[in-house]
Amino acid sequence: MGAVTVSEPDPAVFLTGFPGFLGSALLERILARGDGPVACLVQPRYLETARRRVASITTDLEGIDRTDVRLLEGDITDADLGLREGLEVLEGVDEVYHLAAVYDLGVDPDLAEAVNVQGTEHVLEVTERLDVDRFQYVSTCYVSGRYDGVFTEAHLQEGQSFNNHYEETKYRAEVAVQERMADGLQATIYRPAIVVGDSRTGETDKYDGPYYLLQLLLAQPSRLSVTFAPPGASDAELNVVPRDFVVDAISYLSAREDSAGEVYQLCDPAPLPVSRFVDVLADAAGHRTVSLPTTKSLARTVSQRLESSPLGIELEPETLAYLDHPTRYACPKTQRALAGSGLEVPPFESYADRLVEYVRRNPNVGDEPMV
């Protein structure tokens, strides 16, 4: 008898943003609840990384094997997503999760436009052509820009200014999604706040955002470390959430039929003021700190010089805008939807030490985005 050819099962779910930090964890949740097979769009340069992560994920899940994940080479910046097999490979898909984006506060405007805006438009076009049942989209709380006040799930187009091209392009991408929702697309939007590592293990694959503050502390003597305190920092909040909460919340909410048509902000309803956040981070690192009052322009100059100095301290100047960020985030709709699920944002104080320990044990993790 000849060899029997086993064909790959048709995918039911299409996921972008793999093998990224959130995308990898979300793929595991989707497979674990039995919603596969899953087709993952992967840029050719990340194909080997994607294969290794699929092997790790499927090994850890009982009853799941590698045939439950299909890796498709492509790119959201291309028409038809650059799929070599064509869109026919996705004909059986009834749910799309769009996570792919360039997360970099200092991103070049052309790159941000191509990935965050045009890429989202391309995914939306493919979604409509496939006539899927559900579209799950990961946005960000920072579509708020520098909105002066409390920003909830009901807010979006408020005439706000933006700190950087990342915020502005994610805003425009969400506007595009909400326009499709108004025309009947069954979609759900998730807006995470600033995402840091896992609250249980500290694991992350990129040191950015609050990690720049931590690296600044760790590069200085523990007996006295200096941090920046621009005007307005005393009134600002730093809204941080760990990866496991974000992914667990998306997994839970996306499985509910009544979440279609909703926007959920995945933020901390009781965030720390910037000054307290720095103190907690310093305590976890075992550092004594003093905040140096300064203007943002001076702090920006200092951060640029620190990066080019022999110390080589990574300090993205764009992060300084969040030390006096005027927006406060509220998530009443999310809290109601998660009530009784056991899912809630853990206090930053409860896991800051794990983030610090992970950074100390893994000093070679970089801050480059996956683009």
Could you characterize what this model shows?
- The protein has 371 residues and is an alpha/beta fold.
- The protein has a domain at 13-196 and 239-266: NAD(P)-binding Rossmann-like Domain (Rossmann fold), CATH 3.40.50.
- The chain contains ten helices and 15 strands.
- Helix 1 crosses helix 6 (243-254) and helix 7 packs across helix 10 (352-361).
- Mean pLDDT is 92; it is low at 1-6.
Top-tier CATH class of the domain at 13-196 and 239-266: Alpha Beta
End-to-end CA span: 47 Å
Low-confidence stretches: 1-6
Shape: globular
CATH topology name of the domain at 13-196 and 239-266, in short, is Rossmann fold
Please outline the major beta sheet. Answer: 7 strands, parallel
Strand and helix order = EHEHEEHEEHEEHEEEHEEHEHEHH
Helix content: 25-40%
The counted number of beta strands is: 15
Q: What is the SS-derived class?
A: alpha/beta
Integer average pLDDT: 92
**Integer-rounded radius of gyration:** 21 Å
GO molecular function, one term: alcohol-forming very long-chain fatty acyl-CoA reductase activity
Organism: Halobiforma nitratireducens JCM 10879
Protein name: Male sterility domain-containing protein
InterPro entries: FAR (IPR026055), FAR_NAD-bd (IPR013120), NAD(P)-bd_dom_sf (IPR036291)
Topology record:
Blueprint: E1 13-16, H1 21-32, E2 38-42, H2 47-60, E3 69-73, E4 95-98, H3 109-130, E5 134-138, E6 149-151, H4 165-182, E7 187-192, E8 194-196, H5 210-218, E9 225-229, E10 237-238, E11 240-242, H6 243-254, E12 263-266, E13 272-273, H7 274-285, E14 289-293, H8 296-308, E15 327-329, H9 332-338, H10 352-361
Parallel strand pairs: 1-2, 1-4, 2-3, 4-5, 5-7, 6-15, 7-12, 8-11, 9-14
Antiparallel strand pairs: 10-13
Helix pairs in contact: 1-6, 3-4, 5-7, 7-10
